Amino acid sequence: MNYRIPVIPGDGIGPEIVAEGQKVLEAAADKHGFSIDWVSFDLGAEHYLQTGELVSEETLKELSRYRAIYLGAIGDPRVKPGVLEKGVLLSMRFYFDQYVNLRPVKLLEGVWTPLKDKGPKDIDFMVVRENTEDFYIGIGSRARSGKSRAEFEVRRTLYNIKFGLDIESDSEEIGFQIGEVSKEGCTRVIKYAFDLAMKRRKQVSSVDKANVLSDIYGFWREVFLDVSRAYPEVKHDFNFVDAITMWFVKNPEWFDVVVAPNMFGDIITDLGAMIQGGLGLAPGANLNPEGTSMFEPIHGSAPKYKGQNKVNPVATIWAGAMLLEHLGQSRASEEVVAAIERNLFEARIKTYDLGGSSTTSEVGTEIARLVRAL
Ligand code: IPM
Ligand code: MN
Question: Which residue numbers in the chain have pLDDT < 50?
Fold first, then answer.
């Protein structure tokens, strides 16, 4: 069996960490009797600065022929904040309709957590973050005092929406942003969360702010309740986003599957990363179960460390394990995670963020060795 997998190393530390992920995935492939051909795509800051292009329709079409993309990181201080993030990363998430952003929050054996008296048994849940809607749709603007009009459009695989807005304001200037969630969009991601819970400890926690942003998140809550009726075996609960940050710290063992709208999901998964040992250990998968998915560490491009062979490649290697799982190579995937866990447990070869002094490539080589040895 041979897989062709597009790889986008991207910006900053992206190329260094992805190289280690490739090393480990190749070791797992060797061992399990399949092979991988990497198809490299040059996207990100360099490409943008040289050509003025973020990502072309042609590249997106080409990428959409594959089931899984391996991504390093996007973002570079030479480009205005948001341009690459929105123009490349979010563009791909939306174009491929990767409506689930799946982020495991799992403390592996041997990893230090800042939560006192909590261990691997207490910190083991999945965040299912909606990945195409909410305040991420890019609808907003600024308006100076007086009268003005603004027209917006949201184009999605599921639907198209037009907003027309008459503005009359006597403030010197305002900035505004419109968020939107749809019945179809909420239903599919919440269903995904319940299906996932059926394979785990059968509990789903919803995140919202229905007490204040009641139109958008009250609607989310209503859809959640509708979906929950089809899963009588699964327990559910509702959490305001501010409160759930508190519970993640105080009682992480309460959670099994947490499902959240896009922006809250973004915020709470950085907190999740910290309780599982740091951003260097937190992987993510952008999933379209019927289309093209994309696997990446949840940390960014960390330009400060670019080219130093210093940062932790574990999040990216773990994202690679999620990619293997997605392709149906479950045993290879489990072994990659087991090798990561062994490496962390032995605590000999580790990067600076974990108190070590090993390089990015030493950690990748060691995890690849462990995959072969397991
Ligand atoms: C993430 C990142 C992105 C997001 C940014 C870079 C657009 O923070 O993957 O969590 O907000 O989704
Ligand atoms: Mn984020």
Answer: none
